[in-house]
Amino acid sequence: MGGMAIVFIALSFGIPTGLIGRAKGGSFLLWLVIGTCLPGFGLLAVILSRNEINEPERQCPNCNKIVKLYVQVCPRCGMDLYLPDPSETRMPPQ
User: pTM value?
Assistant: First the structure.
């Protein structure tokens, strides 16, 4: 019976952690594993993590890929990206 209680407690922390992580733009599966393996700490971590959905975006000048403002190297072409002029940034569509 003790093993089932531990699994129930771990999943009762893991599932909400995954749902909150997904709502913030992260991976549900990754946050589920974190919340299940570290009950309490995982939930606290996802609550304190930044919201990926509402981050400003910019366009890579080399390959025109839209990336988040905090990205320093373009994942498509590998070009170093520097802080752009504020007029070159945009908020993602809602």
Answer: 0.63
